[in-house]
Amino acid sequence: MLLISPSILSADYGNLERELRRLTEAGADMVHIDVMDGHFVPNITLGAPVIRCIRGVTKLPFDVHLMISEPLSHLPDFVETGADRITFHVESESDTGETVDAILASGRQAGLAVKPATPIETVYPYLDKLAMVLVMTVEPGFGGQSFMADMMPKIEKLRDECARRGITDLDIQVDGGITAQTIPIAAKAGANVFVSGSALFANADLGAAIARFKALAAG
Ligand code: DX5
Ligand code: ZN
Prior knowledge:
The protein is of the alpha/beta class and 219 residues long. It is 34% helix and 19% strand. It contains eight helices and eight strands. It has an eight-stranded parallel sheet.
């Protein structure tokens, strides 16, 4: 299933309630929320208190992308916000297996993310437990960067590995530089969940933009 998860990193943080209503009306499938700690990545965004405050605005699933050094120790805060899917980085300092298990024990879906330089094989030991693998198509930290097409072989490899193991329901998410030009490339490689920040929010008519992105992904 092809899903669009707009990143609120490009939304108006002063009007998050309005922005979430816009996304809901526009037909977004999820809301991508980027959490950065200024340590794992060189930027700071928002944390659990803000997510908790906006949770009641929409019924859309919250797709929380943790770009933080110690996801395991902060996990209870994010679980408590009502996040539906919690994705953390395999490069973080927390033990990957323990963190996946803790997310599942909390009743949330687990996602595992890889930075551009990280081999996709690092996620293989956890595939049976994951709802999603996030293949970063930019260096995490900032919106508005250019899509790295050289990440596509990682997605193809992961789809092959899933097929080999009979895993049919793993979501493969791409995040970074997703535009009308790049979404067909990522879809063709096997990605099915598309995060987009700057390219989507540049459109006054978000509904039309989301529909167009979906049609382009479908090919
Ligand atoms: C980058 C974030 C992305 C970001 C994408 O570290 O993880 O979610 O918002 O922004 P665009 O779509 O502008 O590349
Ligand atoms: Zn993200």
